[in-house]
Inverse folding.
Protein backbone atom coordinates (compact mmCIF):
# COMPACT_ATOMS: atom_id res chain seq x y z
CA UNK A 1 0.00 0.00 0.00
CA UNK A 2 1.18 3.48 -0.89
CA UNK A 3 -0.11 6.84 0.30
CA UNK A 4 -1.81 7.34 -3.09
CA UNK A 5 -4.01 4.30 -2.42
CA UNK A 6 -5.96 6.25 0.22
CA UNK A 7 -8.50 8.92 -0.64
CA UNK A 8 -8.51 9.97 3.01
CA UNK A 9 -5.67 10.38 5.50
CA UNK A 10 -5.61 11.95 8.94
CA UNK A 11 -2.66 14.22 9.76
CA UNK A 12 -1.14 13.51 13.19
CA UNK A 13 1.98 14.61 15.04
CA UNK A 14 3.67 12.25 17.49
CA UNK A 15 3.41 13.56 21.05
CA UNK A 16 5.94 13.10 23.83
CA UNK A 17 3.56 10.93 25.86
CA UNK A 18 3.33 8.42 22.97
CA UNK A 19 7.05 7.57 22.92
CA UNK A 20 8.36 4.65 25.00
CA UNK A 21 11.75 3.90 26.60
CA UNK A 22 13.12 2.91 23.19
CA UNK A 23 12.42 6.50 22.04
CA UNK A 24 9.91 5.30 19.46
CA UNK A 25 6.11 5.29 19.45
CA UNK A 26 4.82 2.59 21.79
CA UNK A 27 3.27 -0.15 19.67
CA UNK A 28 -0.21 0.08 21.18
CA UNK A 29 -0.59 3.74 20.19
CA UNK A 30 -0.90 2.83 16.52
CA UNK A 31 -4.35 1.41 17.21
CA UNK A 32 -5.24 4.78 18.72
CA UNK A 33 -3.88 6.47 15.59
CA UNK A 34 -6.03 4.20 13.43
CA UNK A 35 -9.12 4.88 15.52
CA UNK A 36 -8.51 8.64 15.34
CA UNK A 37 -8.18 8.34 11.57
CA UNK A 38 -11.42 6.34 11.33
CA UNK A 39 -13.22 9.23 13.04
CA UNK A 40 -11.72 11.58 10.46
CA UNK A 41 -12.80 9.19 7.67
CA UNK A 42 -16.40 9.51 8.85
CA UNK A 43 -15.99 13.30 8.95
CA UNK A 44 -14.60 13.32 5.41
CA UNK A 45 -17.78 11.57 4.27
CA UNK A 46 -19.88 14.29 5.98
CA UNK A 47 -21.31 11.74 8.40
CA UNK A 48 -21.75 12.88 12.02
CA UNK A 49 -21.24 9.49 13.64
CA UNK A 50 -23.68 9.58 16.55
CA UNK A 51 -26.58 11.04 14.56
CA UNK A 52 -25.92 8.68 11.66
CA UNK A 53 -26.07 5.63 13.91
CA UNK A 54 -29.30 6.93 15.44
CA UNK A 55 -30.86 7.55 12.01
CA UNK A 56 -29.98 4.06 10.78
CA UNK A 57 -30.89 2.21 13.98
CA UNK A 58 -27.61 0.36 14.43
CA UNK A 59 -23.92 0.72 15.24
CA UNK A 60 -20.52 -0.69 14.30
CA UNK A 61 -18.67 -2.90 16.78
CA UNK A 62 -15.02 -3.90 16.42
CA UNK A 63 -14.60 -7.60 15.71
CA UNK A 64 -10.92 -7.73 14.83
CA UNK A 65 -7.92 -5.40 14.79
CA UNK A 66 -4.46 -6.39 13.53
CA UNK A 67 -1.28 -4.34 13.25
CA UNK A 68 1.90 -5.07 11.31
CA UNK A 69 5.01 -3.05 12.13
CA UNK A 70 7.48 -2.18 9.37
CA UNK A 71 9.16 0.90 10.84
CA UNK A 72 9.09 3.20 13.84
CA UNK A 73 7.71 6.70 14.29
CA UNK A 74 9.52 9.02 16.67
CA UNK A 75 8.71 12.06 18.76
CA UNK A 76 7.58 15.05 16.68
CA UNK A 77 7.23 13.04 13.46
CA UNK A 78 4.38 14.21 11.26
CA UNK A 79 2.33 11.26 10.10
CA UNK A 80 -0.46 10.65 7.65
CA UNK A 81 -2.75 7.80 8.67
CA UNK A 82 -4.72 6.49 5.73
CA UNK A 83 -8.05 4.69 6.03
CA UNK A 84 -9.99 3.02 3.25
CA UNK A 85 -12.93 0.64 3.04
CA UNK A 86 -11.55 -2.55 1.54
CA UNK A 87 -14.64 -4.75 1.62
CA UNK A 88 -18.23 -4.80 2.84
CA UNK A 89 -19.81 -8.17 3.59
CA UNK A 90 -23.36 -8.92 4.58
CA UNK A 91 -23.02 -7.56 8.12
CA UNK A 92 -19.39 -6.46 8.34
CA UNK A 93 -16.87 -4.14 6.77
CA UNK A 94 -13.10 -4.35 6.57
CA UNK A 95 -10.98 -1.22 6.70
CA UNK A 96 -7.35 -1.05 5.67
CA UNK A 97 -5.14 1.36 7.60
CA UNK A 98 -1.58 2.55 7.14
CA UNK A 99 0.65 5.13 8.82
CA UNK A 100 3.10 7.03 6.62
CA UNK A 101 5.99 9.35 7.37
CA UNK A 102 6.28 11.15 4.07
CA UNK A 103 6.31 8.37 1.48
CA UNK A 104 7.67 5.80 3.98
CA UNK A 105 5.11 3.28 5.19
CA UNK A 106 5.67 2.54 8.86
CA UNK A 107 2.70 0.49 10.04
CA UNK A 108 -0.26 -1.22 8.40
CA UNK A 109 -3.45 -2.57 9.93
CA UNK A 110 -6.76 -4.23 9.31
CA UNK A 111 -9.92 -3.31 11.21
CA UNK A 112 -13.06 -5.43 10.96
CA UNK A 113 -16.37 -3.98 12.17
CA UNK A 114 -19.74 -5.69 12.49
CA UNK A 115 -23.01 -3.79 12.06
CA UNK A 116 -25.31 -4.75 14.91
CA UNK A 117 -28.31 -3.82 17.01
CA UNK A 118 -26.98 -1.46 19.73
CA UNK A 119 -29.09 -3.08 22.47
CA UNK A 120 -28.43 -6.76 21.75
CA UNK A 121 -25.18 -6.44 19.76
CA UNK A 122 -26.56 -9.05 17.38
CA UNK A 123 -25.28 -8.73 13.82
CA UNK A 124 -27.56 -7.23 11.18
CA UNK A 125 -27.12 -6.51 7.45
CA UNK A 126 -25.24 -3.31 6.72
CA UNK A 127 -27.87 -0.79 5.51
CA UNK A 128 -27.75 -0.38 1.74
CA UNK A 129 -27.49 3.46 1.86
CA UNK A 130 -24.42 3.17 4.08
CA UNK A 131 -22.92 0.48 1.85
CA UNK A 132 -23.45 2.68 -1.23
CA UNK A 133 -21.94 5.69 0.52
CA UNK A 134 -18.76 3.88 1.59
CA UNK A 135 -18.16 2.41 -1.84
CA UNK A 136 -19.01 5.68 -3.55
CA UNK A 137 -16.59 7.60 -1.38
CA UNK A 138 -13.75 5.22 -2.17
CA UNK A 139 -14.62 5.56 -5.87
CA UNK A 140 -14.22 9.34 -5.64
CA UNK A 141 -17.88 10.35 -5.61
CA UNK A 142 -18.91 13.62 -3.86
CA UNK A 143 -20.23 13.32 -0.32
CA UNK A 144 -22.29 16.52 -0.20
CA UNK A 145 -24.93 18.36 -2.16
CA UNK A 146 -25.05 22.11 -1.52
CA UNK A 147 -28.54 23.44 -2.24
CA UNK A 148 -29.25 27.13 -2.84
CA UNK A 149 -32.67 28.62 -2.23
CA UNK A 150 -34.96 30.81 -0.21
CA UNK A 151 -35.64 30.63 3.53
CA UNK A 152 -39.09 29.30 2.71
CA UNK A 153 -37.47 26.37 0.90
CA UNK A 154 -34.47 25.64 3.14
CA UNK A 155 -35.21 27.28 6.47
CA UNK A 156 -36.82 24.27 8.15
CA UNK A 157 -33.53 22.35 7.79
CA UNK A 158 -31.16 25.30 8.26
CA UNK A 159 -32.67 26.74 11.45
CA UNK A 160 -31.94 23.74 13.73
CA UNK A 161 -28.27 23.87 12.71
CA UNK A 162 -28.05 27.59 13.43
CA UNK A 163 -29.89 27.24 16.73
CA UNK A 164 -27.56 24.45 17.85
CA UNK A 165 -24.41 26.41 16.95
CA UNK A 166 -25.25 30.02 17.76
CA UNK A 167 -27.87 29.71 20.50
CA UNK A 168 -26.93 26.37 22.06
CA UNK A 169 -23.13 26.47 21.85
CA UNK A 170 -22.34 30.18 21.79
CA UNK A 171 -25.15 31.62 23.87
CA UNK A 172 -26.38 34.10 21.26
CA UNK A 173 -29.89 35.30 22.22
CA UNK A 174 -32.62 33.78 20.07
CA UNK A 175 -34.02 37.22 19.21
CA UNK A 176 -30.65 38.16 17.67
CA UNK A 177 -30.13 34.91 15.79
CA UNK A 178 -33.65 34.92 14.32
CA UNK A 179 -33.89 38.06 12.19
CA UNK A 180 -35.94 39.45 9.32
CA UNK A 181 -33.00 39.32 6.87
CA UNK A 182 -33.55 35.60 6.29
CA UNK A 183 -36.62 36.35 4.19
CA UNK A 184 -34.63 38.23 1.51
CA UNK A 185 -31.36 36.26 1.68
CA UNK A 186 -30.10 33.50 -0.58
CA UNK A 187 -29.42 30.47 1.60
CA UNK A 188 -27.04 27.54 1.17
CA UNK A 189 -27.66 24.16 2.78
CA UNK A 190 -25.17 21.27 2.70
CA UNK A 191 -26.89 17.87 2.72
CA UNK A 192 -24.98 14.59 3.03
CA UNK A 193 -25.59 11.40 1.05
CA UNK A 194 -28.03 10.14 3.69
CA UNK A 195 -30.18 13.27 3.40
CA UNK A 196 -29.12 14.93 6.67
CA UNK A 197 -28.51 18.71 6.60
CA UNK A 198 -25.09 19.38 8.10
CA UNK A 199 -24.17 23.02 7.35
CA UNK A 200 -25.69 26.29 6.24
CA UNK A 201 -24.94 29.92 5.37
CA UNK A 202 -26.61 32.88 3.73
CA UNK A 203 -25.89 35.67 1.22
CA UNK A 204 -27.35 39.16 1.64
CA UNK A 205 -27.16 42.21 -0.60
CA UNK A 206 -25.13 44.71 1.46
CA UNK A 207 -24.70 47.54 -1.07
CA UNK A 208 -24.78 47.83 -4.87
CA UNK A 209 -22.25 45.28 -6.12
CA UNK A 210 -21.40 44.10 -2.59
CA UNK A 211 -22.86 41.06 -0.86
CA UNK A 212 -22.44 39.87 2.70
CA UNK A 213 -22.02 36.27 3.81
CA UNK A 214 -23.37 35.39 7.23
CA UNK A 215 -24.85 32.75 9.52
CA UNK A 216 -22.20 30.22 8.52
CA UNK A 217 -22.78 27.17 10.72
CA UNK A 218 -21.55 23.57 10.61
CA UNK A 219 -22.65 20.77 12.92
CA UNK A 220 -20.03 20.23 15.61
CA UNK A 221 -18.93 16.73 14.56
CA UNK A 222 -18.01 17.78 11.00
CA UNK A 223 -15.98 20.93 11.62
CA UNK A 224 -12.61 20.86 9.95
CA UNK A 225 -13.72 18.22 7.45
CA UNK A 226 -14.44 20.44 4.44
CA UNK A 227 -18.18 20.88 4.93
CA UNK A 228 -17.97 24.58 5.74
CA UNK A 229 -15.67 25.13 2.77
CA UNK A 230 -18.30 23.62 0.46
CA UNK A 231 -20.98 26.04 1.72
CA UNK A 232 -18.60 29.00 1.45
CA UNK A 233 -17.65 28.08 -2.12
CA UNK A 234 -21.30 27.84 -3.14
CA UNK A 235 -22.07 31.30 -1.73
CA UNK A 236 -18.99 32.84 -3.36
CA UNK A 237 -19.97 31.31 -6.71
CA UNK A 238 -23.53 32.63 -6.32
CA UNK A 239 -22.27 36.16 -5.61
CA UNK A 240 -19.94 36.02 -8.59
CA UNK A 241 -22.69 34.69 -10.86
CA UNK A 242 -24.98 37.61 -10.06
CA UNK A 243 -22.27 40.13 -10.84
CA UNK A 244 -21.09 41.24 -7.41
CA UNK A 245 -17.63 42.81 -7.27
CA UNK A 246 -16.95 42.26 -3.57
CA UNK A 247 -17.92 40.01 -0.69
CA UNK A 248 -18.00 41.07 2.96
CA UNK A 249 -18.33 38.96 6.08
CA UNK A 250 -17.93 39.31 9.83
CA UNK A 251 -15.77 36.38 10.92
CA UNK A 252 -15.68 35.20 14.49
CA UNK A 253 -12.11 35.48 15.76
CA UNK A 254 -11.71 31.69 15.83
CA UNK A 255 -12.66 31.47 12.13
CA UNK A 256 -10.39 34.17 10.71
CA UNK A 257 -7.80 31.60 9.64
CA UNK A 258 -10.46 29.57 7.84
CA UNK A 259 -11.58 32.55 5.74
CA UNK A 260 -7.99 33.60 5.05
CA UNK A 261 -7.39 30.24 3.39
CA UNK A 262 -10.12 31.07 0.89
CA UNK A 263 -8.86 34.52 -0.01
CA UNK A 264 -10.65 36.80 2.45
CA UNK A 265 -8.60 39.68 3.88
CA UNK A 266 -9.16 41.39 7.28
CA UNK A 267 -10.15 45.07 7.20
CA UNK A 268 -10.29 47.40 10.19
CA UNK A 269 -10.01 46.54 13.88
CA UNK A 270 -11.73 43.64 15.65
CA UNK A 271 -15.09 44.36 17.26
CA UNK A 272 -17.74 42.76 19.43
CA UNK A 273 -20.95 41.39 17.94
CA UNK A 274 -23.49 39.46 20.05
CA UNK A 275 -20.84 39.35 22.77
CA UNK A 276 -18.31 37.56 20.51
CA UNK A 277 -15.15 39.04 19.01
CA UNK A 278 -15.42 39.46 15.23
CA UNK A 279 -13.26 40.66 12.37
CA UNK A 280 -14.55 42.22 9.14
CA UNK A 281 -13.08 40.51 6.05
CA UNK A 282 -13.47 41.11 2.32
CA UNK A 283 -12.91 39.23 -0.92
CA UNK A 284 -12.66 40.89 -4.34
CA UNK A 285 -14.54 38.97 -7.02
Amino acid sequence: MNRADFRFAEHLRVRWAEVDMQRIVFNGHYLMYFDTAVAGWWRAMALPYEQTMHDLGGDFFVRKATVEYEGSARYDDQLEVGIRCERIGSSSMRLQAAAFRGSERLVTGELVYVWADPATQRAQPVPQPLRDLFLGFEAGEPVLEVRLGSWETLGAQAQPIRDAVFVGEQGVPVEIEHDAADASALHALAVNRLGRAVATGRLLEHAPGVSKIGRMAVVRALRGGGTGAAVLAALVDAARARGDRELLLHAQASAVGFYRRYGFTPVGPAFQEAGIEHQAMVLAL
User: Anything to note?
Assistant: The first helix runs from residue 29 to 44. The longest strand covers residues 104-116. The chain has a mean pLDDT of 96.
